[in-house]
Amino acid sequence: MQKVCVKSFGCSANVAEGEIIKGQYSQESQLVEDEKEADAIVLNICTVKGDKGALDEIKKLKQQHPDKKLAIAGCITPSIVAPIKQIDPTAILVNTHNITNIIDFVNTKTDALQHAKPIKLLQPRVRTNPVVGIAPVSSGCLDACAFCSTRLVKGPLFSFPPEIVEQEVKKCAEEGCKEIWITGQDTCCYGFDRKTNLAQLLKRLVEIPGTFKIRVGMGNPRHLPKYLHELVEIMKNAKIFKFLHIPLQTGNNEVLKSMRRGHNVQQFRDIIAAFRKEIPDITISTDIIVGYPGETEQQFQDTMKLVEELQIDNINISRFAARPGTPAAIMKNQVHGNISKERSTRLAKLYKEQSLKLHQKWIGWEGEIIIDEKAKEGMAGRNDSYKTVIVRENLPLGSVARVKIVDAQAFCLIGKLN
C-alpha cells in the first residue's frame, strides 16, 4: 500500500481541504505524518500572502526528498505554476476546485488547473483535530480588493446550498465535534447568490441537535449592513461563540479606497458598536495590512489610533506583499520593506499591551470552556467568547471543564478547575 503524507498551510478553509484530501487518500493508501516515510507527498499550499512562502516550502521539500512523488494542491495562482514546474517538472498540480478528484489526476499524471464549482461538503474526512469540524459554506467572494489574489484563485462567490451545509454540520456533530467552524473566503456575503444570507443559515444550524458551539469565520464588513440586526440577534444564541472576525485592513479612509475595500472607518465603528451594545463580551478579531502602497506615516497613525479607540481583541498583522496579477502589485509609491517592518513592530507592540489589559479584565471570571487542543503546559480550551484558556491539567479533548480565571497573558487566559 502506498504511503502518502499530506501537509496543509494557511487558513481554516485550506485546513478543511487538506482534511478532504486526506479523506480521499485514506480510502486506498496509508497516511503518514512524517514525509520521510512517505512514497508520495501532497502539499496543500496557501498563496494569500504571495507565492514566495509556498515556493520556499516546495524547494525545501524537493531538496530534502528529491526522489519522492510530489503533488501540489490548494491555492495555485497563475503566477506560481511556472516556478513550481522549474523546481519539479514532474509535480502534479491540482487546484482548489479539483481536490475532490485529486487521486484520479495524480494517477493519470494530469494537472487540473481549471475553475469549477464543486460542493466541498459531505466528503470523506480525516480531521486535523477530532473535536473541531470545519464546514466551508462557500468558495470565492464578491469583492476585488486591490491587494488580494482570492478572486484569481477561487473565482466569484459560489455559496453551497444551505441544506447541504446543514447536513455537513449535523455530520460533524454526530461524529463528536464540539466546535464547528463555519468558514469561507468571505462568510458575510454567504448566500447573496442564493437569495439568503449568513444569519438565515445560522438560524438553521443552531436547531441541529447536539452539544457543540459554532464559530463564524472571517467576513468582509461591507456586506454586514444589509442584515446587521438579524446577525446580531442570532449571534446571541447559546450555540454560537460570541466571536466576530471582520477585517479592517487600515484605519484610514483614503487607503481603504485605494484598497477597494468598499467600507469606510465609520461603517466599521458602527458594526462594532452594534454588536457590543447587544453582546458586551463579544471578541472582535480583525486583520490589518501595514505598508500598503502610498501609506504615509500619518495614515498609519490613523490605524494605530483606531485600534486603541476600538480596543480590538485580536489582530492579525501583515506587512504588504505584492501578489502578482493584482492592481496593488504595480501601484506607484511602494513602501520600503524596512518601513513596513518598523510599522508592523509598532502595531504589534500596541496590540500586545492592549490585549494584556483586556485579558486582565477576565481575571475572576468563572464558567465553562470546551477543551479543544493540547498546550505546552496542559490543555487549552475556549470560553463562550472564544478566549483561549490554558488549564494546567490533563483533560480529554472535547470535554467541558468549569474553570476560574486566575491570571492573564497577552494572548491567553490562565484558568484553574473550579
Question: Please, could you describe this protein's structure?
Answer:
The chain is an alpha/beta fold and 418 residues long. It folds into 3 domains: 3-107, Methylthiotransferase, N-terminal domain (Rossmann fold), CATH 3.40.50; 132-360, tm_1862 like domain (pyruvate-formate lyase- activating enzyme); 366-417, Beta Barrel (OB fold (Dihydrolipoamide Acetyltransferase, E2P)). It is 32% helix and 22% strand. The chain has a 5-stranded parallel beta sheet with strand order 2-1-3-4-5, with helices on both faces. A 5-stranded mixed barrel has the order 14-15-16-18-17. A 3-stranded parallel beta sheet has the order 6-9-10, sandwiched between helices. The longest helix is centred in the C-terminal third of the chain and has 24 residues, at 337-360.
Q: In whole angstroms, how far apart are the ends?
A: 49 Å
Number of strands: 18
Q: pLDDT average, as an integer?
A: 94
Largest sheet: 5 strands, parallel
Please give the domain count. Answer: 3
Architecture blueprint of SSEs:
Layout: E1 3-8, H1 12-26, E2 30-31, E3 40-45, H2 52-64, E4 69-74, H3 81-87, E5 92-95, H4 102-107, E6 132-136, E7 138-139, H5 150-154, E8 158-159, H6 162-174, E9 179-183, H7 198-205, E10 213-216, H8 228-235, E11 243-245, H9 253-259, H10 265-278, E12 283-290, H11 297-310, E13 314-319, H12 337-360, E14 366-375, E15 378-382, E16 388-391, E17 400-408, E18 413-417
Parallel strand pairs: 1-2, 1-3, 3-4, 4-5, 6-9, 9-10, 11-12, 12-13, 16-18
Antiparallel strand pairs: 7-8, 14-15, 14-17, 15-16, 17-18
Helix pairs in contact: 7-8, 8-10, 11-12
